[in-house]
Amino acid sequence: MMRLTGRRRAAAGRDSEDRLYRSRLDRTIMTTLLIAMAVLWLVPIASAIDRALVFNGWRNFSEVITGDIGGITLWQTYWNSFAIAALHAVMVIAVSSLAGYGFAKFEFRGKELMYYVTLVFLAVPATSVLVPLFFITRELDLRDTYLGVAMAEASLTMPFGVLLMRNFADTIPDTYIEAASMDGASHLRTFSGVFLPMSRPALLSLGSLSVMWSLQDFLFPALLLSDHGKTTAAQAVFRFKEYLAVTPDDIGKYNASLVLLAVPALVVVVASLRFITRGLAAGGIKE
Amino acid sequence: MPSLALEGLTKSYDGATEAVSKVTLTVADGEFLVLLGPSGCGKSTLLRMIAGLETVTSGELSIDGRSVANVHPRDRDIAMVFQNYALYPHMTVRKNLAYPLKLGGVPKSERNARVEQTAALLEIDSELERRPGSLSGGQRQRVAMGRALVREPSVFLMDEPLSNLDARLRMQMRSEISQIQRRLAITTVYVTHDQVEAMTMADRVVVMNKGRVQQIGEPTEVYEHPANLFVAGFIGSPPMNFFGARCAGGVVTVAGREIAPAGTLEADSAGSVTGVEAVVGVRPEQIQFGAAGPDELAMAGKVAAVETLGAETLCHVQVDLPGVTVEAGEVTQGDAGANSLLVRTPGNRSDLSGQDAELRVAVGSLHVFDPSTGKTVVSRHGTPRDEPRGSEAENRRGLEDSQT
Q1: 3-class DSSP assignment, residue B22
Q2: How many domains does chain B have?
Q3: Do B80 and A182 touch (CB under 8 A)?
Q4: The whole model's pTM is what?
């Protein structure tokens, strides 16, 4: 057995103390930075809550929750937002999973070109396709419908969805698809019975992100929904201003509505953070 | 009637190079055939062509007399065990086993009965409600076999199914697979690069290299009568020793001693580009220490290194014989200098290290190869090798086709 001399032992001890000291110092610096960042993020939220309490205190919140604001309740805006978000997520998942599976598991002429063309649309800003999307939706008679907004949103989310699903599909060994084929499964059966269940982490991640992005979307609802009854939570931030921000007394209520309108997206993020991170990480690992 | 028949089966991805070239062979009903060769030799591609997972560039493929070259995998009446098992991770063992039956439209009651029966056969009946992720490597292997067996296919394909298991489990599963295959008498094509698996499990072995069949035969036949330099060097662990020999006056001579008639060797190719007139091969266990008798070749040398394996010892002996470099069955270089022979001797002989040694080898156990074509000219026990060996006329024809 190797025995350490006194001097060596002392040096080894100093070395481990140095490492411990360094890790403690690192930890302290990192914690301080994280707290500083959290405070920076919290300042606007805290400020919004503070402004929401002016004049009537917590009553501002209860009145916004129970009251009717310009012909629509807060709950109706929640419902509208979630209906569009759900449709959006279903469309994105359906198209992206099929496309991702196809790009990853089939060989066909022009495959890579088509894939890269799809990815190029990741860089297209929503504002540049706003006018065409407005006319397409109008031609399809989908203005003032949940489906119309969801389709417009999906057109911009799908390139990311295809990217995520193809990356994930690439990590699923081809032998699963071949095994299903030998077991007697058709392409569609392999997709639904083998690929989709195995892609659960990526599908949950994509679904959660799709819902979150749709809940946050202001542009397409503002463009395509003129019916007050279909106002979404994000859109209501603008519409409630017309009814609540006119008198100084209502300023508190308006700020309370702003805080409450952020709640759905916040709830979705908190509830699905686990799926989002797991799905995104799974797509990046080649097993 | 053969269960599986391949006629000139060829696969080319780019139209120029052939991953599998003109393979002709038949597999009898209930036979265990092993495709053996190094990585990239085309054995897995050939298996995938039989499975229908790769398209056939040219040639014929039939199962039970029915041409299936253009038939979808699900309609070929075959089942396959994949190297990574490919068990569906979201299904229980029961559902994994039942899945092919469900897709085949088998009624639920019959499905359950067959799953239970297969699980009992493979001793996994207590694991039916577990998911593959919670099973050990050996259990997963059994489930993968079960999923293939439950369909009662005409042909059972296995693609290196033991390569993910540790050595001990591999040995156990080797014996179990052999027993199950013999009990069910199911026609099996098994791919491996492990010659121990091939030698212990196969009824016949197909040795492949560079997409071509090198030899087809029973394991002992392939070991004792290799058709060419590649088979001689690939089969056997430790591998066969090779050294150069003279070829003149109609005989092959080593160290001045005549060992075999040259046959076609002298007329065809003696004195080839490598500078080697003939290549002689001898298995390490055929060389012994001691003075040579009348029918033996004597060699003198020095034991350079000793590897003790417990029951036996491997000795590296430097001898004064012309060396040759054999790579993938081809003589790439002749060397007039000293050569190192590997000698396998029973017991612990670590005392031999550094000693001068006399070696003897029975002349009848020497193999003689043509250095330019690699073909065997004289096989062990002096068997002339004018024709490649194979158990059937079709195999002989296939071998000839694949070597042209």
Answers
A1: strand
A2: 2
A3: yes
A4: 0.79
